Amino acid sequence: MNYLVVIYKHLLLFLKKDKLLSFILLIINLITFISIFTLYALYMPHLRVNSIDNASYRYFDYKLGEVSSNYEAVDNISIENPLSSLWISGQIEVDNTMISFSSEYISPRDGEYTPNLVSKNLKENEVLVRNIGELGLSIGEIFTHKNNNLKVVGYSNLAEVTFSYKYLMNEQVDFDNITFWTQNVLTGNSYKALNNFVNKNFKVADSTTGIDILSRQMQETPILLVAISIFYIISMISFAYVLFFVFERQSYNFWVYGILGLSRKASLILSIISHIIFTLMSYLIACFLHILFWESFFKNFTTTGIRGFSLIDYVIIFILLLIVSLILFIPKYITIARASLATSEGRFRNEL
Fold first, then answer.
1. Local structure of residue 58 (DSSP, 8 states)
2. How is the chain split into domains, by residue range?
3. Which of 78, 165, 287, 300 sits in a 20 to 30 Å window from 306, CA-based?
4. Residue pLDDT, tens place only, 71-114
């Protein structure tokens, strides 16, 4: 209880006696903390997973080693996993020339990836063609495939020709590529089950999935935290001239406390606790400002449209910065401890 009283009076004395210095130190802490928030928002993978634009983590692309017409398996991909979009593509022979084709099985939400005129809306006897392509067809002309006359109703640059999915399924046209986006980021067992299903039903030659990107970035998280810590150290050193005066003031105060009988151990504990409390006060203000102005200001500094920080994020950042700052100021704590009773008595006798 006595410790709490001394800490309270010590901080109150510092804030009252050195108002300008306290204000400058508070501003420095706020600038540093908010800068760290910005770095954390830009680089932490788990925030990008929950961001508004996290399509890269929901992306799956499977290139097949041999063509397939297993449309039942394609149907089951969407049944087992909520998808926002799914495409199949391949090549067909037209007039002794191999041309690319594609078809959309599931429309992307809000037209996110394709124009409004998509193959999902095509009738079975309709196709889209490339505006300037090998077929050289215009809207209204007829495209013939497997003795079927298909009408060109629009343009799409996704492939030379874009069919309706129903037509490809009925004609059992071979495809060699499957691309889709899940509605949510898959991790753990959900990803393994999906990947195993695709590999079981198709002979996959190569694949690119969002989970691979996410895994690599998650492995880089410790390195990023170290980089953020280094930035914090540089920031604190940049403002060290202000902190020097703060600790000089504290050294004098602890010299007085030493005369009054405060031990070195007590001086050190008091100094560290005061540091933690002042840092926590500054951090809580920084968190309040960050949350208050997130939508109107700080959100603009992110490139992935993250939705904001969780309580865990704020706690992680505080613990990280507190540990770094405590380590950084070990020399000053030693100085303060030396300014306790034993040293102070010697200085006091000399002055007498």
1. S
2. 2-52+219-351, 59-183
3. 78
4. 989 888 877 778 888 889 999 988 777 888 888 776 544 344 33
